[in-house]
Amino acid sequence: MLSKILKEGGLSKTKLTLYAYLNYQRAVKYLHYLQEAGLVQIDKEVKITRRGLETLEKIEEVLRGLGLGG
Protein backbone atom coordinates (compact mmCIF):
# COMPACT_ATOMS: atom_id res chain seq x y z
CA MET A 1 0.00 0.00 0.00
CA LEU A 2 2.79 2.43 0.89
CA SER A 3 4.52 1.86 -2.44
CA LYS A 4 1.25 2.65 -4.26
CA ILE A 5 0.92 5.91 -2.34
CA LEU A 6 4.51 6.90 -3.12
CA LYS A 7 4.08 6.06 -6.79
CA GLU A 8 0.94 8.20 -7.05
CA GLY A 9 2.41 11.26 -5.37
CA GLY A 10 4.15 12.58 -2.33
CA LEU A 11 3.38 12.36 1.36
CA SER A 12 4.38 14.51 4.29
CA LYS A 13 7.09 13.05 6.53
CA THR A 14 4.55 12.71 9.33
CA LYS A 15 2.01 10.79 7.22
CA LEU A 16 4.71 8.59 5.74
CA THR A 17 5.98 7.77 9.23
CA LEU A 18 2.46 6.89 10.41
CA TYR A 19 1.76 4.67 7.38
CA ALA A 20 5.06 2.85 7.90
CA TYR A 21 4.56 2.48 11.67
CA LEU A 22 8.00 4.01 12.37
CA ASN A 23 9.39 6.22 15.10
CA TYR A 24 9.40 9.75 13.66
CA GLN A 25 13.03 10.58 14.45
CA ARG A 26 14.27 7.27 13.07
CA ALA A 27 12.10 7.68 9.97
CA VAL A 28 13.49 11.18 9.29
CA LYS A 29 17.06 9.86 9.51
CA TYR A 30 16.18 7.03 7.14
CA LEU A 31 14.49 9.42 4.71
CA HIS A 32 17.57 11.63 4.64
CA TYR A 33 19.68 8.54 3.89
CA LEU A 34 17.31 7.65 1.03
CA GLN A 35 17.57 11.23 -0.25
CA GLU A 36 21.38 11.06 -0.22
CA ALA A 37 21.11 7.80 -2.19
CA GLY A 38 18.91 9.57 -4.76
CA LEU A 39 15.84 7.43 -4.07
CA VAL A 40 13.54 10.13 -2.68
CA GLN A 41 13.27 13.91 -2.82
CA ILE A 42 12.23 15.77 0.32
CA ASP A 43 10.61 19.18 0.00
CA LYS A 44 7.26 19.85 1.66
CA GLU A 45 6.46 16.25 0.83
CA VAL A 46 8.50 13.10 0.34
CA LYS A 47 8.43 12.07 -3.31
CA ILE A 48 10.00 9.07 -4.94
CA THR A 49 12.55 9.79 -7.69
CA ARG A 50 12.83 7.94 -10.98
CA ARG A 51 15.77 6.00 -9.52
CA GLY A 52 13.72 5.26 -6.40
CA LEU A 53 10.79 4.05 -8.48
CA GLU A 54 13.04 1.74 -10.50
CA THR A 55 14.54 0.36 -7.27
CA LEU A 56 11.09 -0.13 -5.74
CA GLU A 57 9.87 -1.97 -8.83
CA LYS A 58 12.89 -4.31 -8.70
CA ILE A 59 12.25 -5.04 -5.01
CA GLU A 60 8.57 -5.74 -5.71
CA GLU A 61 9.56 -8.07 -8.55
CA VAL A 62 11.90 -10.03 -6.25
CA LEU A 63 9.22 -10.26 -3.56
CA ARG A 64 6.68 -11.53 -6.09
CA GLY A 65 9.21 -14.11 -7.24
CA LEU A 66 9.51 -15.27 -3.65
CA GLY A 67 5.73 -15.43 -3.32
CA LEU A 68 5.69 -12.52 -0.87
CA GLY A 69 4.22 -9.77 -3.04
CA GLY A 70 0.73 -9.18 -4.31
TrEMBL record:
InterPro entries: ArnR1-like_HTH (IPR038723), WH-like_DNA-bd_sf (IPR036388), WH_DNA-bd_sf (IPR036390). The lineage of its organism: Archaea, Thermoproteota, Thermoprotei, Thermoproteales, Thermoproteaceae. It comes from Pyrobaculum oguniense (strain DSM 13380 / JCM 10595 / TE7). It comes from the Archaea. This is ArnR1-like winged helix-turn-helix domain-containing protein. Residues 4-63 form the ArnR1-like winged helix-turn-helix domain.
